[in-house]
Amino acid sequence: YLYEATAIADYRFSRLYKKIMEITNEQKQVMISGILGDGSLHKTGNMSFSCIHKEYMELKYKLLNDLCIGDVKVRENNGYKKGIIYWISTKANPYSKRLSGLSIKNFINDLDELGIALWCFDDGAIHKKDYFFNINTHAIDLDTQTNVLVPFLNRHNIFPKIYSETKKDGRKFNYLYIPLWSGVFELSRMMRKLNLDCYSYKLLPKELEDFYFEYKDTEEFKERKTSYAKTCFFKKKLGLSQKDYICEYFKTHTVNKKQPII
Length: 262
Prior knowledge:
Oligomer: single chain
Strand order of the largest sheet: 1-2-4-3
């Protein structure tokens, strides 16, 4: 009887623990994007996230919900840039423990548009003149970038190229370069849905973004296959000459002089 009672108690506790630690999709997106971006996954299975923007940490705190330990915390930044850093940490949970034993190819397909947006807020930057978008992937090996990240983003209509950067000390790193007409509009729209004022500088001008989505599915636009042809199409629709800018925001897209390594 004692054995049966203990077994029943263990079973009930197991079910209760599983229910308590059931992971929502929003929590998954924060954790996966954190592994790809600025989060830290610890050996104990808990994760931590930090940023100079309180608004961004409050968003992650809201998405993680009851997985967080305490509230958004503050500490002094003792690194290169002085100031305040906001940070949060999570409880150890079955999903993050599972992630710690997997390679990126085994969990990347769990990432959806929310996770892509968070990843790009963490590690992305938009060029303010030509509106191409770079994602810092220095910590990810070239094979994973080539055979996992690029095909994954392609399925979301984002078509990056892999470029190489050489540091002053001779070290080489790779990053993902997304030309304006190869998915930046789609990426910017994903990111805009999170409505973050602190990272509005990482988005395209909304007027330009809206103009693109107004015409992107028209046959007239689809006929334009090159970046130059698409730029000319936009200018024609706005009644601009080739020397003019589009919506005063858009400047003629110039070809990046670097060559992709693949």
